[in-house]
Amino acid sequence: MSIFPKISLRLEVENYLKEGFMNKEIVSAFGKEKAERKFETLLNHLSHPPSFTTVRVNTHLASVPHVKNLLLDELQKQFNGLSVPVIQHPDLQDVLLIPVIGPRRNIEKQQCEAIVGAQCGSAVLRGAHVYVPGIVSASKCMKAGDAVSVYSDIKGKCKKGAKEFDGTKVFLGNGISELGRREIFNGLPELKGMGVRMTEPVYLSPSFDNVLPSYLFLQNLPSAVVTHVLDPQPGEKILDLCAAPGGKTTHIAALMHNQGEVIALDKLPNKVKKIKQNALLLGLNSIRAFCFDGTKALKFDMVKDTEGEPPFFPESFDRILLDAPCSGMGQRPSMACSWTLKEVTSYQPLQRKLFTVAVKLLKPGGVLVYSTCTITLAENEEQVAWALTTFPCLQLQPQELKRANSRTLSQAPLAARRGCSARH
Asked: Which family does it belong to (predicted)?
């Protein structure tokens, strides 16, 4: 049962989402009242964490049973002997699921309080401790070692450094303060250590901070599904067009048994650095990451050779993953989104530019997977319809996976195959 308020949205954004959700097909199938209840349920679910914490095993370096046993030992340490199962996903064989315990309703609130921002609050609900940069406010009496109740300021109204806050706040659980109020707000921007160690979170999830870093990758279930839909094969040349931070990139390389070539693009240097770090950590040397704008990845000069670097010739890749920049409205948990309607609806043109490049870079007979982490029709169903109309060479493919059954998921990516006879 829901214990948090539904995700806090601007009214214009909520109305926009509702208008799309309450379309003729849905209303016709369920009736208006049931459709409205389903929409409200969706908004409530978005503010809560998923039922499972999902981790992907790096099968390039270790077997799933071996990593599962190591993880069980780690959870015993974290949860002080509490028996928490680790479940191998029945269809995604390289994915492990850890049930999230909660919500726990019998936690006694403390007099001393720490207020954190909405983003930090979401991380706490997924098992993170509270780090100093996420703390917005702390009680004037708070000292290191104090028992502290942690709250999320979901509307962003709390002033930095405030000694008390009576605005809208959501209880996240209790912890022990690692630092006093004076140390937290002493004006030193480089202070980045742990501020509150969570001991009684409302939702109990394991922390994966430096836990089996070469063997495990913390990854949401739909993200892991996307790569299985792509179904990369050893020896192929594959493009991850918008790759940071590299979760899907490294998954592609692992499923290919590190045999072949995976090109990863992102236009921000720090994000490309993260892709390279993850590839190195996971022991995957088939990945080549470049700082490059994906909308410019198609080479028009057929003479100039860039020696395997972007931009690329048309029809260069066997498979392409376009995990497009999006409004992110499907990320969980998310208690608040302050974006305007203009911001939420701004991604469709960019997605279409990237889609156009991806189609031209795909070999005849190749597979293109388009995915987002949002719930808007404009970025999902409408984009699929647009792509199939704009590019007659594309054929929509059933998402019946060799390693997974996509029917178990609420969000599924678009898989399209380029017709063998198609040319641009």
From this structure: Belongs to the class I-like SAM-binding methyltransferase superfamily. RsmB/NOP family.
